[in-house]
Each structure stands twice: as C-alpha cells, then as structure tokens.
Design brief:
- The protein is an alpha/beta fold.
- It has helices spanning 2-11, 22-33, 59-66, 70-74, 98-105, 114-125, 171-176, 239-245, 247-255, 262-271, 299-302, 311-329, 333-362, 367-379, 383-396, and strands at residues 14-18, 37-41, 53-57, 82-86, 92-96, 109-113, 131-132, 137-142, 147-151, 156-159, 161-164, 184-196, 207-213, 216-222, 228-235, 277-284, 290-291, 294-296.
- It folds into two domains: 2-78 and 112-184 and 282-358, FAD/NAD(P)-binding domain (3-Layer(bba) Sandwich); 187-281 and 363-396, no CATH class.
- It has a seven-stranded mixed beta sheet, sandwiched between helices.
- The chain is globular.
- Mean pLDDT is 88; it is low at 1-11 and 388-394.
Length: 398
C-alpha cells in the first residue's frame, strides 16, 4: 500500500528537462516511465544529429534494454568493422580484423551512429512529452518545493525538478552553478567528426582506415551509402584559434598532407561544414552535480570526452539511474539526487581518468610513441595476449 501511495505521488510530479540530445531525451523517457510529467526545452530550432559512431557496451547496453530501445537499436547496429592502420600516404601498415574487436566486447554490445541513437530516443518520447524547440532558460528561481524557470519566449514554467542535460556548454550550469570557466578543463586537443555523403573509394567497404601520427589521428570509415563517416583529432596550443577558423579550414590545415580517404573526406567537409561536430576537447569537473532541485546530467555535469569512449553510455546510464533514484526516494528529491550521484560518480571519475591517460593513444607526442602503439596493437592479435585483452576489456565495461 505504501508503495502504491508513493507511486501515485511520483506520478503527479513534474520535471523540466533542458536539452534534447541523448542525455535529455533519455532522461525525459525514463522520467515519463517513472510516472513524471515532463517538459523538454531545446535551444536549437529543430532536431540536430551528427554522424559519428558510439559504442554501447556494458552499462550502456543495459540502459538501452531497460529503456525499451533495444529492438530499434539492434536493427541499426553496424557491428564491428575491420580496422586498417595506414601510413601518411594511405598505404596499409597492418589490419585488425572485425572478429577480434567483436570477441573483445562480447555479445551485449551495440555500435550505432549517434544520429540513429538520437532518432530512436526521439521516436520513443516525442509523442509522450512536449518538446519546445528554439527556447532557452533565462533565469532559475528555487523555492522549497519547486523550481521556476523564465524562458526566452517570455513564458515561465515551474516543476519539482529541473534537469540540465544541455551539453558541454550548458546554459543551466552557467545560470545555476556559475561560469563555464569554473568547471571546464580544456585538454588542448580538437576533435572533428562528420558523416560522408559519398562513399570513400580509397577505403574498402566494411572497413575503416586509421592514420595515427605524432599529435594527430585521422579515421575514414566506409560502411556503405549513408553509413560512412570521418573522425579527426589533434593537439593544439590554441583551441580558440582553431574554433575561429571553423572545421573545414582547421581540419584541412591539420590533415591536408595525408593520403588515402582523407582528401575526399576533407573535400566533402568543405562543401558542408555545418555537418561537422567540431570543438575543443574538454572535461567538466564539478564537486556536485546538483543544487537543491536542479541537477546536471551527461556532458553538462561530467563530460568525459570522446577519448573515453563512454559519453553516450554514461548519459543513458545517468538517465536510467536518475529515474530509479527518484522512484526509490519518493518526494525527497534532494535525497534522491544525492543517492544518484553517490552511485554514479565513481564510474564517471574512472572514465575521466582513463580519458586523460588515453590522450597519447589518439595524439601520440612523438614518433616513438606511434611505434610503441603500433607494436601494442600488433601484440594484442597474438593468441595468448588476445585472451588477456578480451578479459581486460570486458572487466572494464562491467
């Protein structure tokens, strides 16, 4: 009887979720499933998505399953693909078979394009909760039992909970917690990722070529029409200057000397620079992700960077666990948020530390580091070491 009463109370509560990306849509879906009334606020005028890939392994796969998205995403799973390490001119150095990567991650794993994940979340939630595009939060006022927001369209809304899931450059974080500079740690690397309209002929279908050189990595992936993409990352002493140039000019300056599929990818980017995700690589480090009835989730709270490879997984896991914590604590929202953060923070800190350690894999400091990385990749294909590597990867993703 007590549980029924608590459920009834939760069903009358309202949440405002700011951000309609993976973190925001997953949170809206999970809270709706928990019986909350939800409103989503999104600053972009319409849906946005980008074409690079995300891996959903371990907790990410579990969250997708609990959110009810597994059938849809399984149909969009691109699986593992053959990785070809290449020299600067595009000539092959060695090959890592797809089967090796698949064996390492196991059966409970999905690889999907970010846009496909966002589309699956949007299709699951947009008829269940209202999404107000082209709107931002201008002010936040907290009271004992509610939080009130003033919106850019001149209206105001109140709720029992405000979730800032609005990304690395979070407006909610700025309004409630303080300036971005207080929390964002710039790692002096740039990343660019974008879909390819034309299939890169220099790369065999079902494969991706990767060039890793001092201070930079370039990857071009050919998975067929509308499923091919490019990924670039490089060190820089001045991220602000790179952002000022824009993706096409900056990436061409950093990678224009490479061969293989890179020149065609850069030409496609020049024709459609708006298709790229291009930003400096940063982490968000905060002592607390919540203040009263306001909580941050996803990159707004803990951005682990693409170097960690768990951004989407942590966003989905965070949304899933937030819904569970709110259900367990009834109307005691501060207690729910404290419990949620205690459960999630150790995993976030681990992924952030791994990202900092892993930067040298994506942008090796010297040619010696490149050679050492090549030797390590070759070594993990040896039968004895292969099994050790597989078990280590599976433990890391539990």
């Amino acid at each position: 009887m007590a549980n029924d009463a608590a459920s009834k109370q939760i069903r009358t509560q309202r949440a405002i979720v700011v951000g309609a990306g993976i973190a925001g849509l997953a949170t809206a879906l999970r809270l709706h499933q928990a019986g909350w009334e939800v409103l989503v606020i999104e600053r972009a005028p319409a849906r946005r998505s980008s074409g690079y890939m995300v891996n959903l392994i371990g907790r990410g796969y579990d969250a997708v399953e609990r959110l009810g998205l597994l059938p849809e995403l399984a149909a969009r799973d691109i699986g593992m693909f053959t990785s070809i390490l290449v020299k600067a001119d595009g000539r092959q150095k060695f090959v890592v078979p797809a089967a090796l990567a698949q064996a390492a991650v196991g059966a409970r794993a999905l690889t999907v394009f970010r846009g496909d994940l966002e589309s699956a979340l949007y299709e699951a939630v947009h008829e269940l909760v209202p999404i107000r595009f082209g709107t931002t939060v201008q002010a936040v006022i907290q009271e004992d039992n509610k939080v009130q927001v003033t919106l850019s369209d001149g209206t105001s809304e109140s709720a029992e909970l405000l979730v800032g899931a609005d990304g690395l450059h979070s407006g909610i974080r700025r309004v409630v917690f303080g300036p971005e500079a207080d929390f964002r740690v710039d790692m002096r690397h740039m990343v660019g990722a974008f879909p390819l309209d034309r299939v890169p002929r220099e790369v065999a279908e079902g494969a991706g070529t990767t060039y890793i050189g001092p201070g930079r990595t370039a990857a071009v992936i050919n998975l067929g029409a509308e499923r091919s993409s490019a990924f670039f990352t490089y060190r820089t002493a001045d991220p602000a200057a790179e952002l000022t140039q824009g993706p096409a000019q900056a990436l061409t300056a950093a990678f224009g000397d490479l061969g293989g599929g890179v020149p065609d990818a850069l030409r496609q980017l020049e024709a459609a620079p708006e298709s790229a995700y291009f930003d400096s690589v940063s982490q968000v480090q905060m002592d607390s992700w919540s203040h009263g009835r306001v909580v941050l989730l996803g990159d707004a709270a803990w951005c682990v960077t693409l170097f960690a490879g768990h951004g989407a997984t942590l966003a989905l896991t965070g949304a899933d666990q937030l819904g569970a914590a709110l259900t367990a604590h009834g109307d005691d929202i501060p207690a729910a948020l404290a419990h949620w953060e205690t459960q999630l923070r150790p995993e976030v800190l681990k992924r952030q530390a791994l990202a900092r350690k892993g930067m040298n894999q994506f942008a090796p400091p010297t040619k010696a580091h490149v050679l050492a990385g090549d030797l390590m990749i070759r070594a993990i294909q040896l039968p004895g070491i292969r099994g050790l590597t597989r078990r280590a990867i599976q433990r890391a993703n539990q």
